[in-house]
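User: Okay, second chain of the day. Same drill as before: sequence in, structure tokens out.
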Amino acid sequence: MAKPVLLVHGAFTGSWEWDKVIAELEQRGIRAGTVDLPSRGPDGTLERDAQAVRDALKAFDEPAVLVGHSYGGAVITRASVDNDGVAHLVYVCAALPQAGESVSDLLGRDPEPQGDLAAALEPREDGTATLGREAARETMLNDATDEQAAPVLDKMGPHALGTLGETAAGLGWQQHPATYVIALQDKMFSVALQHEFASHADTVIEVDAGHAPMLTQPAEIAEAIAAAAS
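Assistant: Same drill. Structure tokens below.
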């Protein structure tokens, strides 16, 4: 019997980014849930995001596979510390911090930076920022067709900027089995940086996709998650 799955979204998106993967998992008989992170609003912090994930895990009656995308990797890293509700971690082209590292730190030490995220941000007075539509198209959806990209770009929203500078407190990937999915066309985290992240995982999978493979290659992402849930 496959383990249940909890899917955690990245910055500037929401739980909706997993809709296609959920449909694929349901076809495989796998129960999946999502959570909308507090960092979609001005009061969000990394710790509040992690607590939202911890609370969502309690809805399952057994340990679940915890999946994070992009910034969501930092969230699952923190939420899984000393958490027996987690059976396996899956990082989908996601941040995998070392002790004391933030997502901003990871971007800053990327050996082959693909772009300038800071320049693409559109800050707002409440401490959040949005990602410019053109920048989002180029950095997150570079492998998507216009038909695939348009509804995603329409749904994208703000993210609490402070979360990107918050450091990891505990490393859940040291306590649980982990899978890392490398996106070979990623323009947010370089392939070189992803390989460094993946060196800390038990299983490494590559997909020929950009930074949002759950939108452009949902079947491949579902297969990676299903393997972790089996």
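The chain is about 35% helix and 20% strand.

User: Thanks, on to the next one.
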